[in-house]
Amino acid sequence: MEIFDGKKVSNEILSEVKEKIDKLNKKLGLAIIWVGNNEASHIYIKNKLKRCEELGVKGNLYHLDENTTEEEVITLIEKLNNDNSIDGIILQSPVPNQIDIIKCFNKIIPSKDIDGFSNISLGNLLLDKPGHISCTPKGVMKLLDYYHINLDGKSVCLINRSIIVGKPLFNLLIRRNATVTMCHSHTKNLSEYTKNADIVISAVGKPKFITKNMLKDGAIVIDVGISRIDGKVVGDVDFDDVLDKVAYITPVPGGVGPMTVAMIFENLLESIE
Question: N or C: fewer beta carbons within 10 Å in the chain?
Fold first, then answer.
């Protein structure tokens, strides 16, 4: 059994990104739009801004009031689209109910859409055209590549159908000739699918949801879920329970999370390349 070390891999990637950033004749600029005061968002944003500092990127936080209108967010996005000092724009989710986040994502110009959530970015992915790929799915693929996991012909059970994880990841996996079953909250007898999969990828957000009786021997498990139990961060997979059953597994924390952050800066660099 081997543990996928997302921290180690992400640090290697960020080291390469920093080398390239240091050689640029301009300072990269990242804009983060945060509407409201979601506590989890605050933690994510702090981590992103800390990484900006380490990499020599100018991190610009635009913290807007909970009552900000959709029009005000769109006006800010359009201003940042036209600002040459900004190379990437992130609209932090979740946003308050009065804001249609998909509409706002679609106002970000494709070159600056480093989260890859706009219709154009997702369409490019579907059509195998160049463009920004969503950071978590891209991070999962980089992790699999780092550990030389051959996806050709592998059966994958993917438990998530969101535009943030499931749908982009589905397309990235089938590009590599994996056979992918996408499961979700309406899937009946989920364990029938997980038990037959060579690779199980879960992004459900239910703590310790995946147990060893749901996996086949030698399965590869990618845990994208993040939950808190008694102040401790845990994933969708009951880590200790499945250890003697799996060939590879990602820990939570320290697995997919650091990879997602690394992909933000890789996409930011690609936005000017």
Answer: C
